[in-house]
Design brief:
The complex is a heterotrimer of chains A (285), B (550) and C (599). Chain B is an alpha/beta fold and 550 residues long. In chain B, 33% of the residues lie in helices and 17% in strands. In chain B, helix 8 (120-127) packs across helix 9 (131-143). The chains are: A alpha+beta (285), B alpha/beta (550), C alpha/beta (599). Chains in contact: A-B, A-C, B-C.
Amino acid sequence: MTETTGLSVRRSVELTIDGDAVTVPEGTTLLQACRGRGTEVPTLCYGDTITPKNACRVCMVEVEGSRTLVPSCSRKAEPGMKVRTDTERTRHSRRLVLELLGSSVDLSLTANVARWNEAYGADPTRFGPDAATVAQPVKRDNALYVRDYAKCILCYQCVDACGEQWQQTFAIATAGRGFGAHIATEYETPLPDSACVYCGNCIQVCPTGALMFTSEHDMREAGTWDETRQTRTDTICPYCGVGCALTLHVQEDRIVKVTSPSDHSVTHGNLCIKGRFGFQHVQND
Amino acid sequence: MVGLATVFGAGGGTSSYADIERTDVIVMWGSNARNAHPIFFHHVLQGVRNGAKLYVVDPRRTESAQWADLWLGLDVGTDIALAHTIAREIIHAGLVRRDFVERSTSGFAEFAASVEEWTLERGSAVTGVPADAIRELAHAYARAPRAQMCWTLGITEHHNGVDNVLALINLALLCGHVGRPGSGLNPLRGQNNVQGGGDMGALPNKLPGFQDVEDDVARAKFDAAWGTPVPPRNGLNLTQMFEAMGRGDLRTLYVIGENPAQSEADGAHAEQLLEGLDFLVVQDIFLTKTARLADVVLPGSASWCEGEGTVTNSERRVQRVRKALHPPGDARDDCAIIVELARRMGRDWSYPTMQHVWDELRSLSPMHAGMSYARLEALGGIQWPCYTEDTLEPPYLHGRLWADDPAARGRLAPFSIVRDEPPVESTDGDYPLRLTTGRRLDSYNTGVQSRGFDSPLRFGETIDVSPEDADALGVADGETVRVVSRRGAVTAPVRVDEGLRPGLVFMTMHFPDEVDVNRLTIDATDPKSGTAEFKAAAVRIERIAAPAWT
Amino acid sequence: MDLKIASASATDAERDAVDSLLGPPPEAARGAARDDRGHRVARGGAALREMRHLMLPVLHAVNDRVGWLSRGAINYVSQRLDVAPAEVYGVATFYALFSTTERPARQVHVCVDLACRAAGGHVERDLPAGAHASPCLGLCERAPALMVIEAGETPLREVAGPVDRDGVRAVVAGARCDAEPPVPAATPQAPDDGLVLLRRVGRVVPTLAGYLASGGYAALRRAHEIGPAAVVEEVTASGLVGRGGAAFPTGRKWAAVAAQPATPHHLVCNADESEPGTFKDRVLIEGDPFALLEAMTIAAWATGCAHGWVYLRGEYPRAEAALRAAIDEAREAGWLGSHIGAAGQAFDVEIVRGGGAYICGEETAIFNSIEGHRGEPRNKPPFPVEVGLFGKPTVVNNVETLVNVPVIVAGGAAAYAAWGTEGSRGRKLFCVSGAVARPGVYEVAFGATLRELLDLAGGMRPGATMRAVLLGGAAGGFVGPADLDLPLTLEAARAAGTTLGSGVVLVLDESVDLLDQMMRIADFFHDESCGQCVPCRVGTVRQREALARLVAARADDRAGDLALLRELAQVMRDASICGLGQTAPNAIDSAISRLGVLA
């Protein structure tokens, strides 16, 4: 019989970041260690409810003794590590990653990108007008959300949220290879014919606005989406007794979007179709 | 809630969601959580990912069952027979957790004697589940270092629902699977605050914090705080109210946020009784079917987004709901309506905010005493019990049963002697099909809240039948048929479902305006809890002659 | 899991193909007949999830039978393996040998890669209708080459080379390929050259009897005598390093796995030989398959592995047949199985056929592929020795590395270490192709010069003048005629700013268009990038675009794109997840900087 109630004791790890001695609990990633001391490291594919995929490679830092740069989002701090976040190599990598993504994907709704482009001197137009892109029409095949894969940076978060890390529905997967890799249902079938259960957990984790509530998408198209006039209120889902935490995004006394706090012990940012989309009955029309 | 309260003294699930992720065996009994409690099922799936074995007991091979290492498809209403068979197998295989049974429970010998007749052969014959599968579940549950037993309405919505729960609790007692990290008993609540309603005393026999109405000491505390004597006798549960209406003893009803005209079994009868009242008041956010019968309708607010307060979830976590929207038109906050009613009756209940209501509750209910609003905010909700503002209790209940000190162990947990009883209504030649009911993922109860949004998953009410029955009846997928019970008939399209076996059919109750399934269900209810036997009616399916216009 | 399966159903042939591998659906499983028991109990969960690694074999089975993967077929695979259709589709579309659109049962894959195009073979734009452009088929000693795959009840996979353009047209039109030349045609070295690794290839019939008669399994006997720890010590002392290109000390890898408390341990033989210009592993397996099995058995003994996997590239039908036959025979005779030799070692080997993806030669992508996922590399750390196949400690060695092991264990570390140089111990195989008189696999001790190696291969083909030599394949680098005295050692290559990589030595004469070779390399990485990380996924596209512009540009208008290539090279090297992206700019960079192309 195992009767463990043990709180595992986390040892601490000492390392240096940009020359400063830093002590963090064992298991801390370099990104967490950097953010913990106020050192900004840009991230694109990182999300706080999904195991880092380190696919975008914008968070790279230099670790002494390592042949290549190291993804700070997933590399754990090790004793004695000497980490540099702002070297010529890291700046070069971040600039090029911003340029490579910016030249192939629509990053207009991705947080911080304009600021980072400025900071790293990135010019996504430098590859010329003929540079290949992932531009494509918006997919609108159901009433609840749209998929605009022209904005997809292939962070894999939607796949992991739909799949093995949370919902385990696996309605979408990465298909194809290389530059042709893309997020897809089987045989690119429309969502209503797919396994999608409209939990919207993919929308919640999407960092680029590629996946979006239809309500938000339509308001953006109409030019009426205005986050400065929105409130966010945390409450509990009105449906079954699980007690899922909701964040209601309200503009002009109407719910325009529902998210879930990523740090909540019940939901970890996840909802079902009712919690995510089942608010029409309280809309003030 | 009644079953757990009977055995342990507290009517709440004994574990936490996090415990489901750290266990070795999960039994989901009469629960299709994948559809009905999707985010709870996330925790189950994490548990499975962490290595737990999943067993699902359900007449239907549900979405949840499809995740199971083993699905056991028992006949509707044979849960006690299955539980007893498992118990006997555990006892005969020498897998009883002896130290726990001896130190922390009572009535084992009588219990063991009562299940002695439930051999694997007999259990298999009664439940329809092959003996080897019953044996496998019994051994897996008993041998597991940690195990969770979870159930929902598949257990409780029977005429003997409380006995069903007691039969499951017996298994946990046999194996010591309660009161420990990773081991527990978990009823999943169907509604977002059904647990909170009970916590707050919205039960006919309880004051807030599960204090007994008939306990003079407890009642005296409330008498003093409220400045008025609390009636010393238990009230009526919903079923008893309807019985009282039927007798003409109950003439006035004040309904808040319920739709009994559509949610009660044998709906036609319920509607008739409501119509016969002298005075019916309905407070709701919608003009429900019940509200349309009312003399006075009080437009309330949606408590989860148009007002402040708390709700309690299935792991006993009390959480804040907050106002994000203004109630429409003349609608008012539910609490404000009640306070205003009190004022008209000559009482001045001064609650400037909902927090004042809550703080009064904390002063009267020891299990909520430590839950200040500030703490609820800071901790993302708190599980009861929480006795003081600077402590938290373990995330599971009844750890006391494992205490070395007999005094600390408290009241021993009694085994319950319950009898297997078939559903009230049998199938026969005229009504050969067993109808059971349940939920779909995107809809909720009578659909009042869920019908408003445009779900791509929704296809309306159907009568789900096995491929074999569809063949035998000569009906095709999508064909509209008449479903007839001894109480009424509805029409609905057929949906062929491979998760059903011959003789078993399924409907939801999500679309009562189109297909009033509760015209079919039976109003046989459990005398202990008042819950109706929604899960077992007898019906037949009739083809409708091809209409002339096709 | 709760699968949602669309209505498309598998055909009888598709179902048969799957069932021939998995057996009929077990009682009460999804897809099984509905019966009394199935109405009452069903099994799923972990037992089904543990079948995920059969994904690639099942997809091959369907593809072999009907030639493509229909929706119905994928739905059936989905049901049988309890994996959602979108996931199956994601896996199926990762591998080039599968198709999710209908196509003729007979597919002709014509190699358009470096050695074959240098030999005058087809290029992408001049392929006859009905033929597919293929990356390197590993038949470079008989370039230009092609492969035919014909689906059916008895599926056909055959390769041919050299095939001239008329020959290609004939095969596309349906002609059978000429019989393959015997294996030793690929090893032209004389028997008295003191061959060690190649000593049996072409001289000993690859049967168990032949193997035993030529000293086979003596090393395993000794390994059992001295015990696992001593074997690891021998291998460590021998100085053996990985021959796949990364040159990691084999003994250190083994010691790390042997020390891991987590069980079981896995042994993966990387036979996904896909580096353009490489074909030595194919020749080793075709010519001496038991040596690989003995080597794996020793490695497993040393590192505590009960299960071995050979991940064999899908384009090697003859090697697969040879290895399957050897495994069957070894199993039959007790050289694989639950009780091997005096020590009673338990070990068995399973072949996993690749699906056409260069990236699966990466040591972590190979795990994902075996486990039935897309062959995307994993982040390191954790390293495979700790968290590898199925999350367990895993040894990954390539074929050539492994076949050194029996030599070391039988002859002792000291004898082995006496070959080679201080920094490069032992013997090395090179795949010499291109404009030499006798292309093939050559074995030398480390330290022979490039010139000596080319002399072994008969020197330049008559009339040909050397322009460049590509060392290490597409991931390697070009050297010029001035570099012929380069000693073929790890340290000398490093010092000279190049690499031996996987042992490719592709000799290009003046007739070859180097720009075309460079464009092909850019195309290769563009095609073979898995797409997971940005520097590689987009970088390989931008590299190809920039190179295409350079090829078209005037000499005085190249500076911008040349600078761009350098910037791209740096981000790919610094920031790609795996070796594919990190090495993708190397050869192009070397052609510009070392050979002065585009100067």
